[in-house]
User: What shape does this take?
Amino acid sequence: MLSDRAAAEISRISAKYQDARSGLLPALYVVQKEDGWLSPSALTAVSEMLNVPAATVKGVATFYAMFRHKPMGRHLVQLCTNVACMLMGAERLVDLLKEKYGVEPNGTSADGRFSLVIMECIGACATAPAMLVDADFHEDLNEKNILEILEKYR
Amino acid sequence: MEKYLLRNIDNPASADIAEYIKAGGYKALPKALGMSPAEVIAEVKASGLRGRGGAGFPTSMKWSFAAADPKKPKYLLCNADEGEPGTFKDRPILEKNPHLLIEGMIISGFALQAEYGYIYLRGEYPKAKDILEAAIAQAYEKNFLGDNILGKGIRFHLSVHQGAGAYICGEETALIESLEGRRGQPRIKPPFPVNEGYLAKPTVVNNVETLANIPLIIEIGAAEYAKIGSADCPGPKLYCVSGHVKRPGVYELPMGVTLREIIYTHCGGIPGDRKLKAVMPGGISTPILPADRIDCLMDFPSMAKHGSMLGSGAVMVFDETVDLAKVCLRAMKFFEHESCGKCTPCREGVGWMRSILERICSGLGRAEDIELLMEVSANIAGKTFCPLGDGAAMVVQNFIKNFRDEFESHIAGAKNNEKVGPAA
Assistant: This one.
């Protein structure tokens, strides 16, 4: 089910396009921002609202890497390990997050605090390794400062 | 060289419209609107501007095809889906100089007689979304956007459309599919987007940096613009440099500067004065160059003659400590993750190449693996709708062609399997 607020936001965004279906990705973002993930019932509600078949909505939602299909931890850590970040030691940071918080790629820590997603280049290659925590960029990471940064996300 | 694309970038308030105007912004807009749309296209044609997204296609040609198509409305899409690994050149424009892009889009929209523009922004740039949306709202307030721009009866509406993490959507037909609310899978061409693009209407898709060049062309005129950089590929260019250089970052330099100058003069050379091993000059999809082949001009035609590509101008530098087989494997993991699944050679072949590279790098490689990689890659290249498969095949072929010994030594079991990282 969509909240009244989400439904109103989706209507407002869809009106910006010549074709309501173009509002599908933005609608999925609205839902994900509110719920933290795209539940099957939310996908059905979006399908009904935009008049796009439910199977199509699911097909679109599962195509894009940044849509979540299960509940996430309180904070989403999106760490890049692509070539520029790999050169600067990103793989060691993945290991460190596992040791320190018990979180594996595509997993969530037992306390529900962090979910970890490995990213394919987030455009911070000069300041590698880099990550997004929720919507915040953190760059020039190392084994010390990454833990200091993450301590601020409770 | 005087900065244009990165002008005002050190001003913390550079994204604000007042600061942009103070620095000389929005001067090209009234000038362009005083011309006819055909005159604006002619000016861009005379400038010699080539698209900065990677293919280097003449911008005016795309525009004139769309302008000549009678179908309405027309659309101008800005490709801000900067996803080519190693590429971060559009980010400073999006985050720090959004009005330069917006001014470029209004002028371009006028030239095409497009009424609607969308900035297709990658999902990985959430900050840029807020900045662009605030800047667009300011442009509406100043009557630079809307139904009657500057009281001249010109209509152009602009908004941001956020992608959701799919590299393939940087390919223009996949971008259009995605904007239409579909899976981002490329369309076969023809028809080309300039005739049947978004909602089957004439659509021009231009890169952020391409559109950011438009105000300069109008402001100083095509003749002055064409004096910047290479004669057959002029203008300022953003080169984004990462990996093993002392000063990585985004550099605005005249098109056609040499790769050596970028690495050793602007970026200060290799840290610890270690030796250079190789460079990927234009992003992860462009053919790798060994250290002795960096005396080349970094523009589209020169790099094609040199056996590589300018691509997005994303220079990735590898010093002597780097295990290139592992770089090749990481690149293939990327292509496998990003293959949209539409074409069998790419969907199946790229994953196959990744698994071969995985066993080579983990010390389980077989003697025939290198030939197998060459064979699989040859069965991908040229056999897919879009260039993603070609890119993956080209990476494997060029890594093996230039650095075969690195793969062979893994297979011979001579290399250790330490994780890659900065040298101590």
Notes: Residues 100 and 147 of chain A are 9 Å apart (CA to CA). Chain A touches chain B through 45 residues (CB under 8 Å). Chain A has seven helices and four strands. The helical segments of chain A are 4-14, 24-35, 40-50, 54-63, 83-87, 90-101, 145-151.
